[in-house]
Design goal:
alpha/beta, 6-stranded parallel sheet, Rossmann fold, 6-stranded mixed sheet, about 350 residues, elongated, 3 domains, 434 Repressor (Amino-terminal Domain), 12 strands, about 15% strand
Amino acid sequence: MTAGEGRGGRPTLEMVAARAGVGRGTVSRVVNGSPHVSAQARAAVEAAIAELGYVPNRAARALAADRTDAVALVIPESETRLGAEPYFLDIVRGVSTELADTDMQLLLTLIRTPRERQRLGQHLAARRVDGVLLVSVHENDPLPSLLERLRVPTVLNGRRSEREWMSYVDADNVGGARSAAEHLLGLGRRTVATVTGPLDMYVARCRLDGYTQAMNSAGLGGDTSLVAHGDFTEEGGRAAMRALLERHPGLDAVFAASDVMASGALHVLRQSGRRVPEDVALIGFDDSAVARHADPPLTSVRQPTEEMGRTMARVLLEEIESRNGIRRHVVLSTDLVVRESA
């Protein structure tokens, strides 16, 4: 093996430097995108790289830049929930699409137990990833505070409250829910119930707020018995729908805060002999495959879930590159997609 030649005859940084007639440091600066290189030297290095077919060693570059070239997508939910809820899969698709043309590796991490949370904390403290995308944020989840203490660049999917200080990408949940309830009221429905998500999540409280605003504007607010609490699961939607029918057998409309819960509600309505939409109009939230494939197809509030994933990845990459501590808050718009159920 000749001096400066890598194993297997691969060109090395030294060989590029010799061909270009510059120092090793100049080649390194060109490879790492540094602006502190003359145009003449940069052109010589780039020509040498092309002639030799030099491929930079990513691991060495990352080490030199104190980087791992990896980001973690952290979802504090079970595998069952991940597989059953299209929302998570769309987020994963959006994130992976945005990272596809970068050198970043995507590590999917599920957090189901305190031990797994502790292990993630150790992983993060050891700087094994450059940043974190955190999905499904609950109000008292300790992970965001841990990430803040460790100074790990982080972007949340959603918020813990209206006072959120970390970077986040969210949807207009209040406006989307309000448009759903207003649509039901516009159809002439008057006993309009709602199935909420878990209220320790800001997203669920926002969707309840949107529903409440519409009901108050129509002079029909104040009846808390029309509110049943779910958990964003199909079984939660079924249980909530059964409770609503016990309290209000004659209800004529339901807004469920997710398509998955709306699917569970639809099943119970059918079991109880109610026709959708003739007897009970039904609307979900997400505009997922669940809504499109239901029978009848569900009217649903569309949030751009895949675009949320892409935007989260873009914001995180900007934070990793800049390290300036500036937080970004992005809220994407929603739209009501009208189908047969309402």
